[in-house]
Amino acid sequence: IKRVTTHTLQEMKARGEKISMLTAYDYSMAGILDAAGIDIILVGDSASNVMAGHETTLPITLDQMIYHASSVVRAVKRAFVVVDIPFGSYQGNSSEALRSTIRIMKESGAHAVKVEGGAEIKESVTRILSAGVPVMGHLGLTPQSIYKFGTYTVRAKEEKEAEKLLSDAKVLEECGCFAIVLEKIPAKLAQKVSETVAIPVIGIGAGAYVDGQVLVVHDMLGITQEFQPRFLRQYADLRGTMLNAVENYIQDVKSKDFPNEKESY
Ligand code: KIV
Ligand code: NA
């Protein structure tokens, strides 16, 4: 199998083939996504919510992200694996950003890192890139800054914020980022960004006129069901399927139906 690289992704944008991306945080799930043919697996800091049950992405640590990332990498044969640098592991200064990146790359075997922000983190992005590590940007709704904004509503609806976002996207492209995630912004603005920069733009709640789409895998599989934003398309009801299976198991244990003769030694 031919591995997906930053070069593959750039070619996909050039010929108009949309890029598919989903999150994964463990070996079993990553193996399924890779077997299905996903282009990019994001070891997102959404693991803080989905795997650990925290309200925000802020508490997850670098060590925890490395544990998730190394589990994912062991399962993957084809997909390009990107890891979120968690809150507090890159904002301090560019040396801290590089140190965190090197730990992620060495200890997990992942292929790239993702950071939230634009011009503010330009130095860190440049420093990571100069060490030879591909960087994915993330603009719009940036969950690590949730307390600065106060809500998870649509971002960059106003002219000033839209201009800043477009200019940040250009900064990230100039720095040498290989792609940018745009989260929860108007489709028109996302289209403009995608047409302005030459690197792939991957949307989540950013409409159809971008170069690829990303979703949190537990949300699109219907494992988590309390989170229902309008941008989410649910492709399965795994919570329902799993609840049903576990209820049947409990019933079979209680009724002594399980195990039967064939299931015994
Ligand atoms: O952590 C995450 O899952 C993400 C995606 C939503 C882009 O950053
Ligand atoms: Na994230």
Comma- or semicolon-separated keywords:
alpha/beta, 265 residues, TIM Barrel, 11 helices, binds sodium ion, binds 3-methyl-2-oxobutanoic acid, 14% strand
Sum this structure up briefly.
It is found in: Cytoplasm. The chain has 265 residues and is an alpha/beta fold. The protein has helices spanning 6-15, 27-36, 47-50, 62-75, 94-108, 122-130, 146-149, 159-175, 187-196, 217-220, 238-254, and strands spanning 19-23, 40-43, 80-84, 112-114, 135-140, 179-183, 201-204, 212-215.
What's the layout of helices and strands?
Layout: H1 6-15, E1 19-23, H2 27-36, E2 40-43, H3 47-50, H4 62-75, E3 80-84, H5 94-108, E4 112-114, H6 122-130, E5 135-140, H7 146-149, H8 159-175, E6 179-183, H9 187-196, E7 201-204, E8 212-215, H10 217-220, H11 238-254
Helix pairs in contact: 2-4, 4-5, 5-6, 8-9
The structure holds 3-methyl-2-oxobutanoic acid (KIV) and sodium ion (NA).
Task: Describe the protein.
- Strands 1-2-3-4-5-6-7-8 form an 8-stranded parallel beta barrel, surrounded by 7 helices.
- The protein is globular and about 65 Å long.
- Helices cover 43% and strands 14% of the residues.
- The longest helix is centred in the middle third of the chain and has 17 residues, at 159-175.
- It folds into 2 domains: 6-234, Phosphoenolpyruvate-binding domains (TIM Barrel, Alpha-Beta Barrel), CATH 3.20.20.60; 238-265.
- It has 11 helices and 8 strands.
- It is an alpha/beta fold and 265 residues long.
- The site of sodium ion has 5 residues, from loops.
- Keywords: Cytoplasm, Magnesium, Metal-binding, Pantothenate biosynthesis, Transferase.
- Belongs to the PanB family.
- Its EC number is 2.1.2.11.
- This is 3-methyl-2-oxobutanoate hydroxymethyltransferase.
- Mg(2+) binds at residues 45, 84, 116.
